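Quarterly update from the structural biology core.
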Amino acid sequence: MINTTYVLECSINGKAVAVPVPASKRMSDILRDDLLLTGTKVSCEIGRCGACMVLLDGKPVNSCLLMAYQAAGKEVTTIEGISAGEELHPVQQAMLEEGGLQCGYCTAGMVVTLTALWEKNPTPTRAEAEEALCGNICRCTGYEGIFRAVERCGLSIKREG
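Predicted structure, tokenized:
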């Protein structure tokens, strides 16, 4: 059998990493199994639910569909890299304050997706938030708390600005 292991070199949550991995390994598995970054959840494993969402060079992607080699030389941000130490990102704080989570399984993917939206547009409309979240499924909240969190983030920016 041919050895297809190589060293994946990329940046994860702002830190350079070099991880020996099989070429066929998915990024979600590398994050969870090799790097113990278990905030990235795996659910459907076919890119439909968004629980495994990470940022790849600032853009949300399903890590269950991202092969290791596709992350080479890139910046990967997981839910663990969203906050600034103990200080929550505004999206995380708003989700907490507005009840934008229940069981928590989809929360990491939602926060990652909304963080990308917020970085691009700190005051999105509900329609823009709905479009951004079209690849994320939540089975518990009914989404209203999530959309209130988006609105709260926008209002806090408007008050500060």
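The longest strand covers residues 5-12.
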